[in-house]
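pasting for the record
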Amino acid sequence: MPEGLLAAIENAAPAAFLRASFIAYPLVSAGHVLFIGMLLTAAGLIDLKLLFPRWSVGARLDDAALRPIALLGACGAVVTGLALFSVKASDYGELGVFRLKMTLVALAGANFVLFVSFRGRPDAARRGKFHAAASLSLWLGVLVCGRFTGFF
């Protein structure tokens, strides 16, 4: 991202408010953790059910019940993540681990779109296992990169 854009994001009123507030930033950060937890729990249960159909993991929860939770988690994580990013946009924009995290998020989203587009095809079960394994791996990578980002 261009430096001028990152500086403008940092200097915007919402970012200044978050930096100045004793309460707002921790609440947004806690919200980010909550939404990531929702997303990863729901997506993880869907993935584990595909990879290990004989397990009882989430047996009573079908994909139709889990997808809205994952979607809410994803949307909330994006909104709160953008707010957290705005506070140190220039710093985060330079971090390789942050850029890797964003790449992994994009790949996880693309993986989900591909998974949904292959449903109902003859090789859906085999593809489903591949996409489930990719999803678990990508989201684990996002989680690890996110933790590293917080320490820089």
